[in-house]
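Obj: model holo form, ligand = nicotinamide-adenine-dinucleotide.
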Amino acid sequence: MTAAKKRVLVTGGAGFIGSHITEAYLAKGHEVWVVDDLSSGRRANLPADATFVEMDIRDGDGIRNLFREVRFDLVNHHAAQLDVRVSVADPAKDASINIMGLLNLTESAIEVGTSRFVFVSSGGVIYGEPEQIPTDETAPKAPLSPYGVTKLSGEFYLNYYRQVRGLDYVALRYSNVYGPRQDPYGEAGVVAIFCTRLLLDQPLTVFGDGAQTRDYVYVGDVVAANMLVSELDLADDNELDSRAFNVGTGVGTSVVGLADAIQGVSGTSPGCKHEKERPGELRHSTLNTEKIRAYGWAPAHSLEQGLHATYTHIANQRAGAPE
Ligand SMILES: NC(=O)c1ccc[n+]([C@@H]2O[C@H](COP(=O)([O-])OP(=O)(O)OC[C@H]3O[C@@H](n4cnc5c(N)ncnc54)[C@H](O)[C@@H]3O)[C@@H](O)[C@H]2O)c1
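Output (holo structure tokens):
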């Protein structure tokens, strides 16, 4: 352990990415609390050494009381409404979780003197259909969904809180994260969905021509980025983008290329079936990650390594083997 022991709150810690983050803070010797309402997270994802509080981040009194009781040094905020289609169908619900939930946390963090707030934004949605690929942090922001708007708004709120109310924060703008524990039934986890279909020996569904590109980053590398920015000393600068870091690989992979790579890892090849393009889907998204690399972070997993770990995990889970 290098850093002093801290009281850390991970929101969304029963979810895919948040559960890995929780494990990493525990491994560093910190005391970790998880707040999660289990709307998509699972108890089984929670490490035994974390203190679990089943709570909705929209419960302002509950959040305030928890902060007063524990006085968190560090908050890592992963809980969110993250389904683009839900945000389109019900923007008020999206805003109530992603904005009002965030404000409950920031107000309480200020009250108890939390020294850093790590906020998870999305490099896949806040830049819209980017002109420049790979896209760096200073690119124009043009979210095309209520989810993109609430993620970007979260950054603006935190920038306000830092400048005016003194709450220190860092925003991480993830590309497409994949790895063990990703929900194979949601809309976002194409890697988990493909792995599951291969295990059922079913063809992989590709929407449109499959030439759309995404930047697939392994969850272990995302965890390393979180650990880095939890401790990083940053310049006193009020620009929105100065507190934000893209987290991705910088490499675009087409959906068809991903399908080939996963079939290679699995050793099966049921092939792809093409379905109609989904309206509103971005054509290309790949992040420039030079900024965070300058602080010593780099993805440590190749796509093949990450896919292998994910496929093996899902196969073991389906076979009922321990994770
Ligand atoms: N998966 C990706 O590729 C990706 C990309 C960009 C950003 N993100 C962001 O990363 C974060 C984690 O996403 P994930 O992929 O691990 O999804 P996930 O659904 O596995 O995790 C979200 C967690 O938040 C919890 N949660 C949701 N609403 C809540 C509420 N109102 N109160 C308390 N808990 C609540 C869920 O139960 C779940 O455990 C989100 O903020 C998401 O926007 C993810």
